[in-house]
């Protein structure tokens, strides 16, 4: 791993990358720890803050310009804002199952899926992880592995939520 590509980019990209990596790690902890505890709520609030930083900083990253200053990946910004709002709205109304679905969806679709796009050759994260000249093979392997593992974890979480919901 080479951090040079990250050290030489605009501050918005650095903030975005650090917040996304933090959200990826903290979000995984929140997903697999016991729910409803004070620690869960604290970690959840920090994760939401990180997700908002990730989404907001993405608005200032405009190197791929397809629609004005934006690209299709900027749709994840909208998905993130909507997902955060939905997650907060549902938990404040004590609709735990909807909150769980919103937050799990936000983690897997706005963070993991969007993160897979950063592993495409030519992007900074791919250069950091695999080297600037690595080509498509390591990227495709990492993307496929990330998607398969994420899908398996997501399906397991959904199955567990259905089992827990059936007992309530």
Please describe the structure with a list of short key phrases separated by commas or semicolons.
168 residues; mainly alpha; 75% helix; globular
Kindly summarize this structure in a few lines.
The protein has one domain (6-167). Helices cover 75% and strands 0% of the residues.
Question: How do the strands and helices of this protein lay out in sequence?
Answer:
Elements: H1 4-7, H2 11-32, H3 38-58, H4 75-92, H5 96-117, H6 124-130, H7 136-167
Helix pairs in contact: 2-3, 2-5, 3-4, 4-5, 5-7
Reading the helices and strands in chain order gives: HHHHHHH
Envelope shape: globular
Look at the structure and give the mean pLDDT: 86
Radius of gyration (CA) equals 17 Å
Poorly predicted ranges: none
Largest sheet: none
Helix content percent band: over 70%
Question: What is the number of independent domains?
Answer: 1
Taken as a percent bin, the fraction of beta residues is under 5%
The termini sit apart by 46 Å
- Strand-pairing-aware structural class: mainly alpha
Compute the number of helices.
Answer: 7
Q: Quick one: how many beta strands?
A: 0
Mind explaining what this structure looks like?
The chain is an all-alpha fold and 168 residues long. The chain has one domain. Helices cover 75% and strands 0% of the residues. The chain has helices spanning 4-7, 11-32, 38-58, 75-92, 96-117, 124-130, 136-167. Helix 4 packs antiparallel against helix 5 (96-117). The chain is globular, with a radius of gyration of 17 Å. It starts with a helix and ends with a helix. The mean pLDDT is 86.
């Amino acid at each position: 791993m080479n951090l040079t590509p990250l050290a030489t980019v605009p501050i918005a990209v650095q903030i975005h990358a650090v917040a996304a990596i933090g959200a990826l790690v903290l979000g995984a902890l929140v997903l697999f720890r016991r729910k409803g505890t004070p620690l869960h709520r604290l970690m959840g609030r920090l994760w939401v803050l990180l997700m908002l930083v990730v989404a907001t900083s993405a608005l200032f990253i405009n190197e791929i310009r397809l629609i004005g200053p934006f690209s299709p990946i900027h749709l994840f910004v909208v998905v993130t804002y909507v997902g955060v709002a939905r997650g907060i709205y549902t938990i404040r109304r004590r609709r735990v199952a909807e909150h769980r679905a919103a937050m799990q969806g936000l983690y897997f679709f706005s963070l993991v899926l969007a993160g897979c796009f950063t592993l495409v050759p030519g992007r900074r994260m791919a250069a950091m992880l695999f080297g600037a000249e690595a080509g498509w093979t390591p990227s495709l392997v990492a993307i496929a592995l990330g998607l398969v593992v994420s899908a398996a974890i997501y399906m397991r979480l959904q199955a567990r939520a259905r089992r827990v919901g059936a007992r309530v």
